[in-house]
Write a structure and sequence with these properties.
By secondary structure, the chain is mainly α. Helix content is 83%, strand content 0%.
Length: 191
């Protein structure tokens, strides 16, 4: 083989290796940039979800504070229409807190506990409005517990232990779900 041909082949081989190296470098750089951008998007999305969850928790907490303030407006000897209005306003505030709490992402345990606590408050409101003549201490104490639950979640603390009334509400919820599941099995398998 002639020297010029050999030099040309060596030059061509060097050009191919150089071009391959450049293409490999560009691909690696693009891959790294895409991975970095994906991580940044995921972090931004997680921050947005956390921000929305915090906003929903703050709204739920604000409704619970309004409920606590409303609960102390109860007084003995109220007329039936006053009792009904007090009860209706209480239920509306409970429902608003429940709705906002349902929007808190990644908080399954809190949502279940808060639903039980709000169920206990609903029963307390009914008892205070229609079955008692004393101050609304059941509604107030159950509302305080719901506020403590939500506040602990927002601080990142462990949730306080369930009250007896909240535990009872949880058992009743579990029994309703078991009855529902049993009804579903009966409909599916008639035997």
């Amino acid at each position: 083989m002639e020297a010029e041909t050999l030099a040309g082949l060596i030059g061509f081989g060097g050009a191919v290796v150089g071009a391959g190296g450049a293409l490999l470098g560009a691909w690696l750089q693009q891959h790294h940039q895409a991975k970095t951008a994906r991580v940044e998007r995921e972090e931004a999305r997680a921050g947005l979800v956390e921000e929305r969850g915090r906003a929903a928790a703050e709204k739920a907490l604000a409704e619970l504070y309004r409920l606590r303030g409303h609960a102390v407006t109860w007084r003995g000897g109220m007329a039936a229409d006053e009792r009904n209005e007090w009860s209706r306003t209480s239920r509306n505030l409970i429902d608003a807190a429940d709705l906002n709490a349902a929007l808190i992402p990644k908080a399954d345990k809190l949502r279940v506990r808060l639903q039980d606590a709000l169920g206990a408050i609903r029963k307390s409101v009914h008892i205070d409005a229609h079955e008692s003549e004393h101050e609304a201490y059941l509604s107030t104490s159950d509302t305080e517990h719901a506020i403590a639950l939500l506040s602990a979640y927002m601080r990142g603390d462990t949730l306080p232990a369930p009250t007896v009334r909240e535990q009872r509400e949880g058992v009743e919820r579990d029994m309703r779900e078991a009855e529902w599941r049993e009804g579903e099995r009966t409909q599916i398998d008639p035997s």
